[in-house]
Amino acid sequence: MKERHFYGYVTAFLSCLLTLYFVSFSSSIRPTENAELNATLERSVNGRAAVVIIRVEDTTGEPTKYLVQRKSIDYPIKPFQNAVCLFGGNAELTDKEPMETLTRELGEELPPNFVHALLHSSNLTFLGSSMNMQTAEMLGKTEPYSFLCACYEARISLNQFQNSFPNQDINEGTHALLTKNQLLEDEKYAWGYDFIMSDYFGQPVKRFCDGVTVTKVDNDKLKDWIPVA
Question: Residues 105, 90: contact at Cβ < 8 Å?
Answer without folding.
Answer: yes
